[in-house]
Amino acid sequence: MKGYIVSVYESIKDDDALKNYALKAREAVEKYNGKFLVRGGNKITTEGNEFVRTAIIEFSSFNQAKIFFYSTEYQEAHNLLKDTVVRHHQIIEGS
Questions:
Q1: How many C-beta atoms lie closer than 10 Å to residue 7's C-beta?
Q2: Pick the CATH number of 2-39+64-94 from 2.30.180.10, 3.40.640.10, 3.30.70.100, 1.20.120.80
Q3: What would the pLDDT profile of 53-71 be if each residue is shown by its tens digit?
Q4: Which of 12, 44, 55, 57 has the most CB atoms at less than 10 Å from its CB?
């Protein structure tokens, strides 16, 4: 089964930090053969909390998504957002 990284952002304090994160994260996604399915864009909240941004990345397997998330390359990108965003981040198995 495929693996997915799903991130929903409650708030973003620093757009420049997000841009720097996005550049570094994209390099890690490419290295681990991930594919962005969603990166922001138009949305309609039909139920629950309003989030300012959503990102979904697809990997060939749940294990590959875990390897990507815990990789040095992605963790370096992830650390760029410390204290600048509030988000919910999940690794999910799916078809």
A1: 19
A2: 3.30.70.100
A3: 999 999 999 999 999 999 9
A4: 57
